[in-house]
Amino acid sequence: MTEQIYALWRRMEQGWALGDAAVFAGVFAEDVDFVTVRGEELYGRRAVAAGHALLFAGPYRDTKLTAEISLIKPLADGISLVHVTSSIAPAGITTHAQAVVVQRADGWEIAAFHNMIPKGKS
Asked: Where do the DUF4440 domain residues begin and end (predicted)?
């Protein structure tokens, strides 16, 4: 289980490095609830991909996302809470996310994601 959860963030990092919003968003559930660092609520994988396509074409073009998982807490069979700190270079941005990951028939995916910039880290 743990390795499969880590793999979600590795795929997210790959999508970011490629500037490929579809690959980045591919780790999220089709019906994901996603809160951005600005507090915007995105519903669904398509909305996450569309939002990140704009970021990758603009302010985050040619940047690198590095994620560090600090907590994987099983909540029930096939459901875990995950805490992740991510860095975006060379932008110098650090984010913290809390995610709920769920196990589906074809593997793990992120069902809920709340991302924020910790005070004093922007």
From this structure: 6-110
Residue 18: in which H helix or E strand, if any? helix 2-18
| Alpha-carbon span 1 to 93, nearest angstrom | 29
Residue 52 domain-assigned?
Answer: yes
Residue 121 belongs to a domain: no
Structure tokens, 109: 């995916």
Q: What is the pTM of this model?
A: 0.94
What digits encode the pLDDT tens for the residues 54-103?
A: 999 999 999 999 999 999 999 999 999 999 999 999 999 999 999 999 99
- Which residue from 76, 112, 94, 108 is spatially nearest to 8, judged by alpha carbons? 108
Report how many domains make up the chain.
Answer: 1
Q: In what order do the strands lie in the sheet with 93-104?
A: 41-43, 28-35, 107-116, 93-104, 79-89, 64-76
Range of the domain at 37: 2-116
Q: What is the CATH number of the domain that holds 38?
A: 3.10.450.50
